[in-house]
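General statements about sequence and structure are easier to judge against a single worked case. For one protein, we set the task of working out the structure tokens from the amino acid sequence alone. The sequence in question and its structure tokens are set out directly beneath this paragraph.
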Amino acid sequence: MIASRTDLMAVLRQFNPWWKGEKMADLPTWRRAAFAEVRQWVKAPPAPRAMLLSGARQIGKTTLLLQTIDSLLVEGVPPVQILYATFDHPLLKLAGLDGLLELWREIEPARDGPEYLFLDEIQYTQDWQTWLKHQVDFHKGRRIAVTGSAKPLAVEGQ
């Protein structure tokens, strides 16, 4: 492994301040119309699927995820059940999806109840589509929302 586990854990803790009882910094208080839909989907998915938010860079996908996390915390979801990671961070990209989940549960052991995974810029990870399908198929207690920029998410050959 190129990065140490200690460095990777420090990055994860930085992106998940609620694990230490801290608030997210600089989160806008206003909400886009799409927030209500994202929030409803996360609380009660209509089907056992993951949610993908795609679009151009800098349009608010990350803000939607972070506002959703904030609302879950306000409603009393245990902070250890919520993971946020962005794969445009080089160390998290190197850790990969399974490595990330392993680190999460090493830092914050699982509890009963749904787990909420918010994975930003997932297109930077290898084989993310297959990984996501397996998560949906075999980990029914996980609610997964991912984002990706529109151009890198395009299917090869199209």
Observations:
- Helices lie at 5-15, 33-43, 61-74, 90-107, 128-138, 150-153.
- The chain has a mean pLDDT of 89.
